[in-house]
Amino acid sequence: MIKGNVAPNRGSIPSLVGTLSDMPHRLRADAERNRTALLSAAREIFGEQGLDASLDEIARRAGVGNATLYRRFPTRRDLIAEVFAGQMNEYVELADHAMQEPEPWAAFAGYLTRLFELQATDRGLSELLVSTSFDDDARLSDLRVAAQRGASEVIARAVGAGVLRPDFTRRDLSILMRANAGVIQRSPEPDAWKRQLALLLDGLAAR
Prior knowledge:
The protein is mostly helical. The chain is built from nine helices and no strands. The protein is elongated and about 65 Å long. The N and C termini lie far apart (111 Å). 26% of the residues are buried. One of its GO terms (molecular function) is transcription cis-regulatory region binding. This is TetR family transcriptional regulator. Residues 54-73 bind DNA.
């Protein structure tokens, strides 16, 4: 026998509303954690294996599924551009630091040393610096142009001071970067690039 309407348990309603209102925040936080984990894993794996590294392995190391990776970064190019934008800034800054060196030869030698070292510490970045596959990516292309402009200034200063052979140009620097990328990729000796650098600097000094 029903003696009257039973009042609903209103104490549960506020907690339910609170839970629902928190959901968008939690979803955003989860999405940001996944993005950070993916970028960290991609930076490590591209650095170790190069730009052709397995995207499946990147997702596994990040602790997310492949669907999450492709939802955040639909293509390999999207992921590479996001991962390396910061490191391309380092490439741009190399020339800025070199131009602060008062002695032109020390500036050029220091620039080339730091550039080769930057390549040696990250195989993915080394490949990206000599690749033309991303010239249509506005962000990476703008950074590359800025870096090349800075390199030209470092070279012109050293040539003008008579300490660098006068026929050396930025195009020659690009060739040296490609050669260094090959040494890094193929040599079993991790410091082989240092020997190549020493030989290059000896040959590039004006006599």
